[in-house]
Amino acid sequence: MSGGGTAGGNERQIAYWNEVAGPKWIRVQAAMESRLTAVEDRLLERAAPRAGERVLEVGCGTGTTTARLAGLVGEGGHVTAVDVSRPMLEAARARLAGLAQVTLMEADAAFATFAAPFDLVTSRFGVMFFEDPAAAFANLRASLVPGGRLVCAAWGPIADNPHWSVPLEITVARLGPPKPRRPHAPGPLAFADRDHARTVLTQAGFAEIAIEPERVMLSGRSLDDEAEMAGTMGPAGALIDEKEADAQTRAALRVAFREALPGYADADARLPATIHMITARNPA
């Protein structure tokens, strides 16, 4: 899910999340929501939204975290949930219908102007897609009250996430490496480097910055589902698309992913993962 990026440089991300990633996510929505429950739990524990607070959620996707935020702030609070992906927002609207304390926005959070300041800006994997992250986070900081807090989850290094690294290694061996990418380019691993993440937030004017690695267990529904996910989303899925693999090759890769899964997933299809929990405050 994507919060956005810079004007004049974010068209690719917006198109990607509307034409490629958003529709993909919708196809595997149930499996994706299951596997990210532990991440969502950890994020909400750290963000600790309170009754009556005003919350900005960046990259709300299909609204799973939004619904829980709305319940925590209650009818006296409000959640403004932003995404650039129209297909994912349509799913969120269906999920959140009837929640008066939620406003959904199809907007680029890097540049959007919000009606009121927020107590909390939060995101589950929605802030890694900014073309100019320092400028985007500066805009988000401007939306916070003095002393307001930022709490976001981003993916840690690929080496610490075998649910991505193993399928990617298999895909590279069969299809060749991906095209070179510049360091810290927009994408799931944009904040895998903690020093880079700290630099971005410092440039954006935040204080009390912490980027802490945390181990979580992703809750897959089955090993077959996880093999399908590996070929659809994440670095392996992106490389398969980049190489324009045909249906036969995609099917063979899914078989290879399934065969590799017992090496790093348990019998209940739980997979170890590392996220970076990013926290900071708007100076008072």
From TrEMBL:
Under Gene3D superfamilies, the record lists: Vaccinia Virus protein VP39 (3.40.50.150)
A GO biological-process term: methylation
Which E.C. number(s) belong to this protein?
A: 2.1.1.-
User: Source taxonomy lineage?
Assistant: Bacteria, Pseudomonadati, Pseudomonadota, Alphaproteobacteria, Acetobacterales
- Report keywords, A-Z: Methyltransferase, S-adenosyl-L-methionine, Transferase
Q: Which organism is it from?
A: Acidiphilium multivorum (strain DSM 11245 / JCM 8867 / NBRC 100883 / AIU 301)
The record's annotation in PANTHER family points to: METHYLTRANSFERASE, UBIQUINONE BIOSYNTHESIS O-METHYLTRANSFERASE, MITOCHONDRIAL
Q: What is this protein called?
A: Methyltransferase
The record's section on Pfam families has:
Methyltransf_25
Would you say which domain of life the source belongs to? Bacteria
Q: Which GO terms describe its molecular function?
A: methyltransferase activity
